[in-house]
Amino acid sequence: MNTQDLRNGFRGPVHRPGDEQYDAQRAAFNPNLDARPLVVAEATGPADVRAAVTWARAHDVPLAVHATGHGTHVAATGGLLLKTHRMSTVLVDPDRRIAKVGPGARWGDVIAAAAPFGLAPLSGTAPGVGVAGYTFGGGFSLLSRKFGFAADSLVRADLVTADGELVTASRGHNPDLFWGVRGGGGNFGVATSLEVKLFRVSEVYAGVTRFPVERAAETLAFFQQWAATEPDELTTAIILGQGPTFTVKTLHIGAPADAHRLLRPLWSVAGRPVEQDLRTVRYADIKLPSVAPRNFDMVDALPDNLVDLVGPDSPVTAIEVKHWGGAMSRPAPSAGPAGHRDVPFSIGINAPAEAVASVRKHSRGSFLNFLHDRDAVATAFTPANFRRLREVKRAWDPENVFRTNLNIEPARQHAELLAR
Ligand SMILES: Cc1cc2nc3c(=O)[nH]c(=O)nc-3n(C[C@H](O)[C@H](O)[C@H](O)COP(=O)(O)OP(=O)(O)OC[C@H]3O[C@@H](n4cnc5c(N)ncnc54)[C@H](O)[C@@H]3O)c2cc1C
Q: Does this model's pTM top 0.90?
């Protein structure tokens, strides 16, 4: 296919197979995803984004967006891969407590720009992750029990829609689109800028405590009950690995003495710590371990056999149990479709799907940002939210131009259903 007409209307670099930069620019975070796009285009501004969307639609070529490639699980082979990393401006307005960012911005840039004002965004565990994909996919932060999902912190997004229009999604503009992007992923348009809220957090008390693995089963059983008593300021997760210890990960927005008082009941069951590294740190300096989950399930209660799943002869190398709830479970009436807000725990497991069947049968669903399986997208939402997302998709992208992603198909028209 001739891509010269794309080059004519596009200011940023454009790469075809065989071009020097093609391989470097097509790579995603997952090295096994060997996508072979027809063309890779690096956008320099909203006009480039418009040109790319219009070109893809005119030629019926699927369009994929990369901010950082961290959340790319669907290969853009044969399509147009639009990269936004050149659009990574971050502007902090300390009075409004808002960061206005380009679609290629990473959380690390926002954290650094907000920190001098004593502010922090609802970023996740890795500073290299992009603001756009993370926020549109829900955004579970270590601060989310206190302040909600990152999607809840989105104030405004400007997007190029499937018909090439640049529109604003906010409370006052296109409220259905604004609802959809607060959890429904990159299904409705390509964002050219986002505004997210910042929160008054500069230092937190955070770290890990490791206990003998023999106490893990009892601790998990107690954790299920005890977690419900945690205040929103306290966030905890338990990591099971293959070694002689298990890890309790904690973050407390508040004084160390309060954290120790709150954690004491859990410690009394977990036993004497083998190692403890809890300290007051700047939000920008938090470094906590995480399990990269190949399987991710939200559950009401933890299955009894969790501890037995992981072991030296098992394909399960690590399990992370997170406690959700808090502000995430008390959304504003106008909140978007992110997550299963009433489900208190998640189980992230690094293992092939066959190895986790005993957990999957307890699953209430997944979370879009931690989902890798494009055939399981519906499980990331409540049935009512998923139905509504498909309606919003039909309104804004009826031909499913934005389908090289964790895709939500447009709802069928009534007439189409009658014709079947
Ligand atoms: C190491 C690591 C740590 C993580 N930690 C967390 C965590 O703590 N909490 C959490 O919630 N998630 C976490 N995630 C998941 C992460 O939020 C998702 O992978 C997210 O999709 C990454 O967004 P991105 O823009 O960086 O990725 P990309 O791969 O660039 O984009 C992923 C998808 O986002 C959409 N998208 C990107 N840019 C745009 C745009 N401009 N307009 C419209 N749609 C767009 C597209 O659908 C795209 O396919 C983590 C992932 C990794 C790899």
A: yes
